[in-house]
Amino acid sequence: MHRPQHLNRYQRKQLVIWLQSGVVRQNIKSDLRETIDALHALCTMATVTKDVIHSVLGDILTTNEIFRNKQAAHVTLWGWFQESEVSVFNKERRRILGVCETMPSNSSPPPPLQHHFSFSPREQGGIVEEFLNFAERNLFQFLVRNANCVTTTEVASFGDKSRPKIKPDFANADTLSMLNFIIAYKDNYKTSFQGENKENAIEILTNYKKNVRNQMAHGVLQGTEGRWNDYMLQLVAIQTCEVTVCLGGSYTEVYGAKYQLDKDIIERIVNNATNPPSKPKGTKRTKCPTEDTVDGDIHPPKKQKDDEQFEMSAEH
């Protein structure tokens, strides 16, 4: 539909009075288009087009409830507007919100969204690896605690289908394999999840698989900045905390690591804003606060664990 021709205040007032005089009831047809055509044929105002009648009549029906419900013809007409004209249906809201009638046109595509990188690529990898270790340990401990939820046949079948094959005791299972196993047998574990979001445990695990594990394996480097901006690092921390809680793992260490990451990001942003040369990327992260310095915060585990240490932690 073409944009309605602009009417001055007097012309619009005269048109409104005419449309509310009973002419609509007397000339309603079988559909909206035929009704507008009939009204246009009767209108004596030279500057009024069909589009103008359509727009003004729609405004009257939208804003004047008494007129809208006064006659059966008006109710029918209002129904036609609602069915065929979304723009009329939303006109009052557009007016309240001050939304432009037409979409703005951009001569060029928008620039890419800028993200903040407070850490060097090597630091980013160390931070993500630390949280992945938390998740991997909690996933394995969850499987050990709930071993009675699955049969040896189910475990063996899953292991045989995996590439590379997974041992029956999951000794060589990585984070992705354990996530896939729990998701595959979600019905077996539905009563084993914990926390206030236990009903959404599979969604939490699926999001972690997509946003953290897969990003770690397949994420695209963003120039020399690395692949993990500050927002994504915080997302890793938050989702690792969510995974830990829904699996019933010990949350004190991962909560402490998240606290330290948030603190480091804030400090670096502030330092870079006030004195950029004094705090270049790649400076050493401060240690996570201990119980002696911040109540309730525990020193996080080492970023790397050898196989013997990992197996011992999983047994406890």
TrEMBL record:
It comes from Jimgerdemannia flammicorona. The lineage of its organism: Eukaryota, Fungi, Fungi incertae sedis, Mucoromycota, Mucoromycotina. Residues 296-316 have a biased composition (Basic and acidic residues). Residues 272-316 are annotated as: Disordered. This is Apea-like HEPN domain-containing protein.
